[in-house]
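Lecture notes, unit on protein representations.

Consider one protein chain, 371 amino acids long.
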Amino acid sequence: MKKRVGVIFGGRSGEHEVSLRSARSVLQALDPQKYDVIQIGITLEGEWVTGENVLEALERHQTEHLKRACLLPEPGHPHLYVREIQGDHIALKPYTDLDVVFPVLHGTFGEDGTLQGLLELAGVAYVGAGVTASALGMDKALFKQIMQAHHLPVVEYLVFTRAEIENDRTHVIEAAEALAPYPLFTKPVNLGSSVGITKCHNRAELVEGLEEAARYDRRILIERGIDRAREIEVSVLGNEQPIASVPGEVVPDEEFYSYASKYLNSGTQLLIPAPLPETLSQEVRRLAVAAYRAVDCAGMARVDFLLDPQTQRVYISEINTLPGFTEISMYPKLWEASGLPYSQLLDRLITLALERKAERDRTQYVYRREG
């Protein structure tokens, strides 16, 4: 029997448009002979919608004709419900069962563990990492702390709150300048796709970068910049026995791999496989799996590295637990180069989601005393 796969996309996030692009690729590649696909969109306001041609409706920002949808925390009954107005009240009506959910969401309220928590409460299998790994992957500061606890290499950094920056900017600037010479990077702790990231070459740019990052999060990361750093990425796949793809290298058409460089400009190059010595290639693959295991990831993730061209030292930059799936995204491209085509990759991710759900169902959550 065909599996009913709910593909969720959009979201209340700065990465909403990126999610729609990823979703289009996934929807086109899912085999209709294997899956009944239910499109579930989340608007910029956070409203869930379903029905016909949901993706096109979200792209046009015209969702009035779609059904309003929701999931309920009722394990054992993974239904997608729709809301219907009946007289002076709203009723919930079962719309379809779901065998597995495929979140194609990036950023806040999709990749940060919040959606994963809802799916856990609903008792439905879902693609990708669980609550903890998702939250740690989204939080750049906590992720770095976990890496350090596992003796995995990260670039030197500081973390400040928005309130600290607003109330004692001088202290923040002095601490940042004591961390390392310029350039420095400022980043929102919880966001992806390079939104809100600034490369700061002097104090004036540092102030602007702090203000820009503070627009998107209450916690801001300041990180030492690496001169002419090479950006290396590795895709990881699996649950208990994760494997790493061949590494790839991003050669951005700007100073660093910004949002525009990722999605708007055409000059960025993806080198697959990355031109690395074999020993270094094996090392980044080893580190990718080590980082994946350290946060207890599952399903998939893309692990990003910075390679210092002067010292040849490799630093783990971040882990993306719901990486991009657009036509230009590195995650599927790396697996294709490793011998796993796009459609088969989706099949494998769905299988991993079902396996993880079966393993989770073995856990006893209620303590019952004998006798």
